[in-house]
Every structure is written in C-alpha cells, then in structure tokens.
Amino acid sequence: MNKFLQEVLDGLNAQPKHLHSKYFYDEIGDRLFQQIMASDEYYPTDCEMEIFKNQTAQLAKTLKNGFDSFDLVELGAGDATKSSYLLKQLVADKVDFDYFPIDISTNTIKHLEENLPKEIKGLKVCGFNGEYFEMLEKTRQFSDKRKVVLFLGSNIGNMPVADAFDFAKTLRKSLSKTDLILVGIDLKKHPRVIRAAYNDAKGYTKKFNLNLLRRINNELEADFNIEDFEHYPSYDPITGSCKSYLISLKKQTVRIGEADFIDFEENEPILMEISQKYSVKETDEMASQAGFKPVKHFFDDKNWFLDAVWECK
Ligand code: AVJ
After folding, report:
1. What are residue 216's phi and psi, to 5 degrees?
2. pLDDT per residue over 246-297, tens digit each?
3. pTM value?
4. Which CATH architecture has domain 44-189+278-312?
5. What's the CA gap between 223 and 262, in Å, rounded?
6. CB 177 within 8 A of CB 312
7. Which of 39, 77, 9, 13 is nearest to 206 (CA)?
C-alpha cells in the first residue's frame, strides 16, 4: 500500500481524527501557499524576509563564526528566496562555501540547481532530494567540511512541541562541535494577529486546508463532499498552539479507495495542521535541552519572528 494512503487511513481511523499537513503541498497546494504568503494577513514570510534583507551582513558574519570554509545546508529549501540574500552576501564576501539545499520535492531541487548559479555568479549548488536527516547524513559523506544548517520559515512549528524538542535533539546528534544552526521560529504575539494569519479574508487558508480532501479524492479515489466540511482555525494564547481543523457539518460516511469507509459524527473535527508559536525563552530552552547553546537572536522590526542561531555545546 502506498504511504500516502496508509497515513490517511491511519489518521482518519484515529481518535481524534487527523491528517498530516505535509500532504498539503501538491501543485494546487503549492499555489495556494504562495497566495497565503502574499495575503495581507500572513506575516511570517514578510518578517523573516525583512531579517534576511536588512541584517544580511550580520547574519553572514554570525554563521561564518570565524571559520574560513563551510557547507551551507538548508532543510526544506523551497524556492530559497530568503536564503538567496545570504548566499549573495557570502559570495560577495568571497567566503569558501557551497550551498546544499535539501528538499522532499524533486522539482524544487532541480529548479534550484538550474537557476541559482545563473542568478548568483560563482555559487556552487548541490541539491539533495529526500528526508531531512537521511540527506543531512549524505551531505556528510559528500563533504567533511563544517556544516551551517538553515531551517527557516517556522517549519519547526508544524511539529507538536514535544516532537520539536525531539527534532532538535536528533539534529544536534547529527552535527559536530563546530557546526551551527539558524532556525526560524514564529513568536507568540497578540492572538488577533495570529488568528487572522490563519484565517485570511480572501479564504486562501480555507482552500489550502480543503484542498487536502480534494487531493485525497483524486489520488486515493475517495468521495469526500468538500461542501460538507468547514475550515475552523484556532489559537490558544497560553500554550501558543495554533491549530486548523475541518469540521464535518453532518453525520456522514466517506469512502476511501475500494474498501475503506470512515464515519463522521456531526461536528466531528479533523485536525489538519499545527503551527506552534513560541516565546523567545521557550526557544532558548529548546536549544539548551537539545544540547545547543543559543548564541544570537535576529528579530524583525515588530519582534514577531525570530531567527535564532544555535551553536553546538
Ligand atoms: C509553512 C508550515 C510555516 O504553519 O505558518 C500557512 C504553513 N499553514 N498557513 C505555517 C501554513 C497555513 C506554514 N508553514
């Protein structure tokens, strides 16, 4: 059985029902995420972009940390718009480094390898297509230089807190003493701002969530009636947990593939995504518990987003 089908069935047979947000990103999902990022309400991308645009030289110096050469590894590189500011700066500073983007999407890697060296003269790009930790291991076999790892965009927020702490620990174990990481984290702020970012007025976020049901219909031959589910965003300002649900509007049974049937009660939720928000203190604690030392905080002007630099202890 394919992994997508297996994970969908496991999630929908679990209590509470849930689906994995990594499956949001098919072609239509990619496009909807672009529209979310361009919406007035969704601030994280703009905030982190501002940090990379306005504090490039400081970022470059901090990541270099006095070493002459290194490999710059990016987990989940995407279109690398933010990191390209840093790449340009490092090339202009004549730093001896190569760029190793890691991404789950083959297309993304192909695109970066083709286009980035044209855009940034003198940049060497070597992409790795696959899961983060497996590919990080590959970059080590490929080159034994010091590693500087970027994990941007608050992608760490897609994990529940306990999983994020475990992720940081695993990351630390796969790094060496002089390595360094830069992690982008969305911060706790006025709950109104966060709620709006995950409930934009044009409805892109709503479509983004419902698109996964459409994808399951298409790829797994299911019969979800999209109109019978409603997007419900929530944010808890105490825990910082920002969650998106789809609510079943009636008692119904959905077929998936040939032989699987999922029963929904009226008002039963499917947990679709978590976008965890942290305080600065909480991120420092995450670093310390994982065996890192938080050495520098880069903020945007509003202090809404944090790019934290963690050394290995
Ligand atoms: C790409 C995971 C950082 O959680 O803010 C945007 C995805 N979901 N709007 C986030 C997302 C709804 C985004 N990340």
Report:
1. -65, -40
2. 999 999 999 999 889 999 999 999 999 999 999 999 999 999 999 999 999 9
3. 0.95
4. 3-Layer(aba) Sandwich (3.40)
5. 11
6. yes
7. 39
How many angstroms from the chain centroid is the CA of residue 151?
A: 8
Domain ranges of the chain: 3-42+192-274, 44-189+278-312
198 touches ligand 1 (CB under 6 Å): yes
Nearest ligand 1 atom to the CA of 158 is 2
Q: Are 68 and 96 in contact (CB under 8 A)?
A: yes
CB 210 within 8 A of CB 246: yes
Q: Is 11 in the pocket of ligand 1 (CB under 6 A)?
A: no
Which token pair is 146?
């010091």
**First vs last C-alpha separation in the chain:** 43
pLDDT per residue over 203-246, tens digit each? 999 999 999 999 999 999 999 999 999 999 999 999 999 999 99
- Mind giving me the DSSP string for 220-251? HTB---GGGEEEEEEEETTTTEEEEEEEESS-
Interatomic CA distance for residues 60 and 150, integer angstroms: 12
Q: How far is the CA of 138 from the centre of ligand 1 (A)?
A: 27
DSSP character for 70? E
The structure tokens listed for 127 are: 């992409």
**What is the best residue among 20, 30, 32, 33 to mutate for testing ligand 1's pocket, by most ligand atoms within 8 Å of CB?**
33
Q: How many CB atoms lie within 10 A of CB 146?
A: 19
275 alpha carbon to ligand 1 midpoint, in Å? 6
Q: ipTM exceeding 0.90? A: yes
pLDDT reported for residue 1: 67
CB 211 less than 6 A from any atom of ligand 1:
no
* 205 Cβ below 6 A of ligand 1: yes
Q: Whose CA is nearest to atom 2 of ligand 1?
A: 155
Beta bridge partners of 189: none
The minimum-distance atom of ligand 1 relative to the CA of 242 is: 4
